[in-house]
Amino acid sequence: MLIVKKFGGSSVADAERIRRVAGIIADAYSEGHDLIVVLSAQGDTTDDLIEKAAELNASPSRREMDVLLSTGEQASVALMSMALEKIGLPVVSLTGRQAGIHTNSDYGAARIERVDAERIRSELDRRRIVLVAGFQGINRFDDITTLGRGGSDTTAVALAAALHADICQIYTDVEGVYTADPRKIEGARKLEEITYDEMLELASLGAQVLHNRSVQMAKRYGVELEVCSSFVRKPGTIVKEVTKMEKIKISGVAKDTNTARIAVMGLRDEPGIAFRVFRVLSNSKIIVDIILQSIGRGGTKDISFTVARSDADAAVKVLAAQQSSLGFSELDVSETVAKVSIVGAGMMSASGVATTMFEALYDAKVNINMISTSEIKISVLVDEADADRAVAAIHRKFFDD
Ligand code: ADP
Ligand code: ASP
Ligand code: MG
Fold first, then answer.
1. Euclidean distance between CA atoms 305 and 294, whole angstroms
2. Under CATH, to which class is 2-243 assigned?
3. Does pLDDT of 385 surpass 70?
4. Residue 206 CA, ligand 1 centroid: distance in Å
5. What is the CATH number of domain 246-401?
6. Which of 149, 152, 204, 209 for a ligand 1 pocket mutation test, highest count of atoms within 8 Å of Cβ?
7. CB count, 10 Å around CB of 320?
8. Confidence (pLDDT) at 242
9. How many angstroms is it from 230 CA to the middle of ligand 1?
10. Over 80: is that where the pLDDT of 395 sits?
11. What is the pLDDT of residues 279-288, one digit of tens each?
12. How far is the CA of 66 from the centre of ligand 2 (A)?
């Protein structure tokens, strides 16, 4: 079998952990598998590099930032190679560029456009274990790019897709995908399986266990994923198209604090207003999430929406610049909000799921600011200070009651 294994930062944080992971790799190699191993930067390396940059320049160019951040993963693959060499295994470490990972030029959030896999193939043909630095590639100017925080998962899935691997295993510091963050929610349960669609929603709604783009790519190319622990050798969670599990109503609860709410108040209540407000935002490439429009009263209405917290200042700026043409009276911003969501394919065919969620919030005395729903998720916007309590209460209601 050809297996892609990816180990996250905490799994390779120090020499002892690198040795432990080397043991997992050695066992799989001795079973006769071809192995591609993708690694993240050790422990907090990426955060430390970001801090170092900030000491010198508050707004460094994104190109240079990527040159810097990509070094963390490069160090990891070199160190892991040394640990594997030491136990007598044939191994080669490759940077994203050497591995043929080509991306667009969106530094810091680059998308993989293609993988030229010849080098990896020829190394595998020589029965070498191929270690690839995660989270990075090169663009058409031959410059280093990075894929965004948590992007090593996406490197792993891209390689699994390009080389038609039999499975892509994501090793991390928990035993799989749980019904809520197992580090925060007591009683969170490990899922045996989850569909791509549900996993994509959970990852996009704040469960950082998988990079959401890795799930998107796995779905598109039919790459079967397993999320498992690098500390305990047990089966993890399988992510695939269709699960055999009985349809439980919801598969998880997630929290996302990277959100801000903006209210545009006193807009004229007439056709074309929403279009003009959101055109201003989309022209500035600001992605809007939940939208709520009030019922018009006395010829005016309010529109509220959420954006990523990092986009809040820019959104306010572009809207304020258009105040007279859009004709609103006031802008209000809150950065102390959080989005709490439930996800589950089973909710399509079950009634009362929203009611149960809202009852849990009522029991916990959490006020809901906004609501948004789709076929497989319900999200509410709450005050950030209430978010953990909200997640715990919802989780309890669905999984313990
Ligand atoms: P890695 O460094 O291995 O990439 P991450 O920190 O990116 O690891 O992701 C693993 C973390 O995701 C876990 O430690 C856990 O706290 C968090 N997490 C959040 N939601 C979930 C969930 N539903 N299931 C499992 N882990 C979750
Ligand atoms: N080292 C990068 C980060 O911390 C990429 C990754 O770990 O996946 O975001
Ligand atoms: Mg991660």
1. 11
2. alpha beta
3. yes
4. 10
5. 3.30.2130.10
6. 209
7. 11
8. 83
9. 13
10. yes
11. 999 999 999 9
12. 12
For a mutational test of ligand 2's pocket, the pick from 37, 44, 46, 215, i.e. the residue with the most ligand atoms closer than 8 A to its C-beta, is 46
401, with CB counted inside 10 A (0-12, 13-18, 19+), is exposed
List Cβ neighbours of 266 (8 Å cut-off, separation of 6 or more).
300, 302, 328, 329, 330
Ligand 1 pocket residue status of 212, Cβ below 6 Å: no
Q: Is the pTM of this model over 0.85?
A: yes
Tell me the domain boundaries of the chain. Answer: 2-243, 246-401
Q: What is the pLDDT of residues 161-179, one digit of tens each?
A: 999 999 999 999 999 999 9
Distance of alpha carbon 222 from alpha carbon 210, whole angstroms:
16
Work out the pLDDT band at 243, boundaries 50, 70, 90: confident
Helices (H) and strands (E) in the chain, counts: 12, 20
- Within 6 A (CB) of ligand 2 lie 8-9, 40-41, 46, 72, 134-135, 149-152
